[in-house]
Amino acid sequence: MNLSALVAAATSALEPPALQNSPQGDALLRRFLADPRAGSQPWTTALLRQCAGEDADLLFPDGMAQVAESCFDLMDRDMLAATNSFRSRKISRRVRAAVMFRLDHAAPHRAAIRQALAVLMVPTHARVLARTLGRSVNAIWQAAGDTSTGFTYVTKRMTLSGVYISTLLFWLTRGGNPASVEEFLDRRLSEIGRITRLRNRLTGRIA
């Protein structure tokens, strides 16, 4: 398999399909996330009905994994709607702004987001977790105005995946102080500066 084929395969894996959504579903998710029980109890279909209505589960036939995936997708779309506010000449600063926006915007529901991630961390939901995180990383780059293609596209997403996941986990466990989250993110974002050097080394070896 040549380099272009490898890049095409990696790009495909890093581009999960868009998730279907609806105004009714979004409203239900926001209602569920806002309920204190969604942050203090493990997520079940029964809890979803209690918090969001008796028929709430009908919009999510694949169960709570679909609910959790849809919650992260809602975070992605809320962030993308604010794209115009991420203004900087440096794309790394726009990436930082996009990540901080999604975390700050979701801060009132941090405990519920922790429960959502717990659902996706179940081994049987590994594929759902992978595409959820991949979709979020793509959305962050899109919000930052990234237009890269090919190998650069792949390496940027692979690098940001580690930064985003570690920052998300830090925010979920110790995110009560926004300043500490920003400091953590800034330290991890310094890794993005390695993308060009990594790309040059890899392409030099493969060529």
Structure characterization notes:
With 207 residues, the chain is mainly alpha-helical. The chain has a single domain, classed as Tetracycline Repressor, domain 2 (Orthogonal Bundle), CATH 1.10.357.10. It is 71% helix and 0% strand. It has helices at residues 3-13, 23-34, 37-40, 45-52, 64-81, 91-106, 110-120, 126-143, 150-174, 178-189, 195-206. Helix 2 crosses helix 5 (64-81). The mean pLDDT is 88.
Write a compact overview of the structure shown.
This protein has helices at residues 3-13, 23-34, 37-40, 45-52, 64-81, 91-106, 110-120, 126-143, 150-174, 178-189, 195-206. With 207 residues, it is mainly alpha-helical.
Question: What are the key terms here?
Answer:
globular; Tetracycline Repressor, domain 2; mainly alpha
